[in-house]
Amino acid sequence: MRDTIFLNGMKFYCYHGALPAENEIGQIFVVDVTMKVDLSLAGETDQVTDTVHYGEVYEDVKSIMESKPVNLVEHLAERIAKRINSHYNRVMETKVRITKENPPISGHYEGVGVEIVRENF
Fold first, then answer.
1. Angle 73-87/54-65 helices, nearest 10 degrees?
2. Please, which residues have CB within 8 angstroms of residue 21's CB and are 6 or more apart in sequence?
């Protein structure tokens, strides 16, 4: 399956992190989601009911990112993938990438983060 729906560059100001500074001052998190979905039916019917509504997926991601702070972006990514895979039966696989552009660690980089891939069984 080569069809995908993606939401790239979703930005949320949150207070997640294992370091106290992250919980106090917060930071911007960038979330990218890619879902493998068979889009052939939607391509034929032109009906939103035959695809995955990315506006709804955005709201799911937003609710998780803006929820109670957690220590690890791995935990956030897992929650996002589980939510998508359990709520959208058309999704066969979900990839979630979460980037911290400016974490409180020394060094020069464009961002640090995680990327996970979870299949929907």
1. 150
2. 104
pTM attached to this predicted model: 0.95
pLDDT in tens, 41-51: 999 999 999 99
Could you say which architecture CATH assigns to the domain 4-119? 2-Layer Sandwich (3.30)
46, 37 Cβ separation under 8 angstroms: no
Whether 100 is a known active-site residue: answer: yes
Confidence band of 1 (pLDDT split at 50, 70, 90): low
Please identify which of the residues 62, 68, 82, 100 carries the catalytic annotation.
100
Residue bearing tokens 């990112």: 65
| Whether the Cβ atoms of residue 113 and residue 75 lie closer than 8 Å to each other | no
Angstrom distances, CA of residue 57 to CA of 67, 83, 95, 98, 107: 16, 9, 13, 15, 34
